[in-house]
Structures are given as C-alpha cells and as structure tokens.
Design brief:
By secondary structure, chain A is mostly helical. Chain A has one domain. Chain A contains 5 helices and no strands. In chain A, helix 2 (10-43) packs antiparallel against helix 4 and helix 3 (63-70) crosses helix 4 (75-103). Chain A is elongated, with a radius of gyration of 19 Å. By secondary structure, chain B is mostly helical. The chains are: A mainly alpha, B mainly alpha. The interface between A and B is large, with 70 and 68 residues.
Chain lengths: 129, 278
Amino acid sequence: MNKPANRWTDQRVETIIGNLLRAGVSLAAAVVVLGGIVFLARHGRAIPHYAIFVGEPFELCTVSGIVRRAASFRGRNTIQLGLLLLIATPVARVAFSVVAFALERDRLYVGITLVVLAVLLFSLAGGHV
Amino acid sequence: MNTLELTLLIWLGSLLAGFLGSLTGLGGGIVITPLLTLAFGVNIRYAIGATLVSVIATSSGAAAAYVKEGFTNIRIGMFLEVATTVGAVMGASVAARLPASSIAVIFGIVLLYSAYMASRPSPPRVADDHRDRLATLLKFDSEYPTTAGLQSYHVRGVPAGFSLMFVAGTLSGLLGIGSGALKVIAMDQAMRVPFKVSTTTSNFMIGVTAAASAGVYLQRGYIDPGLAMPVMLGVLLGALLGARLLPRTRTTWLRALFAVVVAVLAVEMIYHGVTGKL
C-alpha cells in the first residue's frame, strides 16, 4: 500500500487525464454525427452559403444559448452542442489538473493552473480584449 | 453543388488532410483553411472557425495515446499555457478586426515558414547538464522513458520559451491553427526539452490553446455547425488512421511532399489575399 502522498503521482494523473480527453472527444463526435445526420437529412438538398460571412444566429454564439437550444433536436443545434462539448473537453482537463495538483499539495501549480482556467472561462463567457 | 455533396467533399478533403498531417507530424489544421477557402470558396472566417474546432479534436484524441507513454511534462505544459491561452484570446480578438485579405496574407506567411521548417533537418543539440534557477523553481526538470531506461533532463531558457509560446498562442487565435511547430521549437530549441517530450507536451497544449480561442470564435459567429461538422469528423478520423499507420511508415519523402503542398498553398493564399479575391 502506498503512502497517501504517493498515490497521486504525475503518471497516474496523466493517465486519468488521457482517458478524460478521449471520453470527451468520443462523446462530442457522437453528438456531432447525430446532429449531422439530422442536418443533412433536412437541408442536404439546399444550396450552402459559406462564401459570405454573416455570422451565426445569436443563440448559437453563446454557451447558454447552445445549451438552451440543444433540446430542440434541430440538426444545427445538436451539432453545435457537440462542438461545445468538444471545446469543453480541454477546459475539463485543466479543471481536473487543479484538483490533481491540489491533491499533490503543489500550491504553485494550483495557482498556475487556476490562471489558465480563468483565461479559458473568461473566453467562453464571451469575454474578449 | 448542394449541401450534401459539398459536405461529403469537405469531409473527404479533411480526412486526407488529417491523415497526412498526422503522418508527417505537421498537423492537419494548417492545410484545411487553405483547402476550404481556395478549393471550396468558403469564407476565411468560417474556414478558420471550422479548422480550430478540428484542432481541438485531434489534440485531445491523440493525447490519450501519448500520456500512456509517459513523455508529457504536465508542469511545463501548464506553465506555458498561461502564455498560449492569453495569446490565443488576444489573437482571436485581433482576427475579428482584421480584413479577410490581411488574415489570408498572414496565413500564407505562416504556411511558408512551416514548409521551410518541415523541409529542414533539425539542428544538432548539445547535451546540457546545467541547472537553471527558474526551471528548478518551476519544477520543470524531469525524466522520460527511453530504451535505456529513464533518462533525466534539465530545462532552461524559460523566458525565451514563454515569449515564443505567447507568439504561438497569438497565431493560433489569429489563424485558427494549432501552432504545433512553433510550440515544439519553443520547447525543443529554446528550452532544451527533449524532442519526444516537446512534441507530446505541445500536442497536449494545442487543445487548451485552441479552446481559449474557441470561446471568442463562438461568440463572433465563426463556428458554423454545418461546416465544422464534416471538417471535425474528417480530420479526427484521418488523424487517428495516420497515428495507427505511423509506426510502420517511412515519412521522410512524405514530409517533403507535404512541405511542397503547404508551400504551394501558401503562395496561393498570399496571392489571393493581396489581390483581394478572398
């Protein structure tokens, strides 16, 4: 039996993080595929307008908007939810690192990781400079 | 061309780009935006948004395989992510204010540089046992597995590496790319992190950097679900296939070929940017 201090080694933390990332990407890809099928079934024959930039409707531009719209089961909304899950995966990884460094009692790196997490949350909350 | 046909073509193109990017180690993201804009006439802002999303997918997907090998230095990665994420948010904010033609020209220049770096053999390095004060304070010195057992290494050049990472982050946010090549240079050359540790740590950082830009892109409406869907799914599948094939493939000629493709795309991007065709 290891001493408690040794149980949270960097290697173990990294393995958990690796699995977390893979699970996040798999889930995101599955949701995007689902949304993609619905989107193509409904709009596959329409003419796409990717040449001119008009931006996305407001509801698809914010975290809360995407989550609110996700229940409506329209293809584009579901894809956007999958993409949001994908973006959230590295954020979750950083959040997990905060906990892991805290368990390792590494205060310096708890602080550094919190700074990174703050920048990520600032960006996702719609902040920009 | 209707949406279904275009989606399938973009998916196939992204699959190929992800596959080659993974085999050559240059990353698929760098050719997707030129492919979308030049071949499919997609607006560069939508192209950048879709590419950025695919960068997160490949980085996170590959990380799971990398961490098991024990090369990633999570402390170096996390510390440098302070620079890359701040840079990414700034780069993404600048991108919104720049005209499309300027973005295309900057993109072309970065592509040219990547092609040049890919075609050039990496310079020899001198082993260094010298301990650096800042690196020691930040607990960067570590060890990694080699065929001869665990090999310890010392890191130095922290300020130079941190500054380069800020540039890498800014370019990543500005152009929607992973900036993997520049991240590896910052760690491998400036900080003397062993190459294997540099590449895996860089991959680890790419996803977090891209997530920082993604928030800004999302809010600006750069991420179109209909377009990002085939790009993300294509690149992800291609990168996974490439990673599976990688140990059995000789990539020297492939790297050279890919560098030529990147260079041609670079010239096209700059030409289209300067003549205002994008």
